[in-house]
UniProtKB/TrEMBL annotation:
CRM domain residues: 4-100
UniProt-annotated stretches for the region Disordered: 91-152
Keyword field: RNA-binding
Protein name: YhbY family RNA-binding protein
Keyword Cell cycle appears in the UniProt entry: no
Source organism phylogeny: Bacteria, Pseudomonadati, Pseudomonadota, Betaproteobacteria, Burkholderiales
Protein source organism: Mesosutterella porci
Membrane-spanning residues: none
Length: 152
């Protein structure tokens, strides 16, 4: 496999997207092992854009590690600042599209309630759908008890 090469405009867009990402993979004392490569590969399959933190003060060793990552995972170097490296690879198409189509639509489910309260997950979903909230029991007004012997 070889390093993926992308044009300048695409690299700038990806650099802007990676600005607020936290490093997803941190290399340990053992450096770049097969397990770390698998973890980087898994993160790239899920997200596409991944930040990697490489420890050590030797610049040459870091550049060798970066070159090995790019070569073995067929990725493109987006940015390398200090010990943090951002790499990108297009997200592969899902092979099991049939399984995802069999899932029920999340919007179609009715809200669950417990004693008139709607669960937080349902509140978020209903807020996105902008539908009126159906409650099992109507909301009661707030009752304020007056303190005994308090002056009015």
């Amino acid at each position: 496999m070889t390093e993926l090469i992308i044009d300048r405009d695409e690299r700038l867009k990806l650099r802007a997207q990676s600005h607020d990402l936290a490093p997803a993979v941190l290399l340990g004392q053992n450096g770049l092992t097969e397990a770390v490569l698998k973890e980087i590969d898994k993160a790239m399959n899920a997200r596409g854009l991944v930040k990697i933190r490489i420890p050590g003060d030797d610049r040459e060793a870091r550049s060798e590690i970066i070159a090995r990552i790019l070569d073995q995972l067929n990725a493109a170097l987006i940015q390398a600042i200090g010990k943090t490296v951002t790499v990108w690879r297009p997200i592969p198409e899902q092979k099991n599209e049939e399984k995802t189509e069999q899932r029920p639509d999340r919007e179609a489910r009715k809200p669950r309630s417990r004693g008139g309260k709607i669960l937080k997950t349902d509140k978020k979903r209903l807020a996105q759908a902008k539908k009126p909230v159906r409650r099992a029991h109507p909301k009661r007004g707030r009752l304020v008890k007056k303190a005994m012997g308090a002056k009015q």
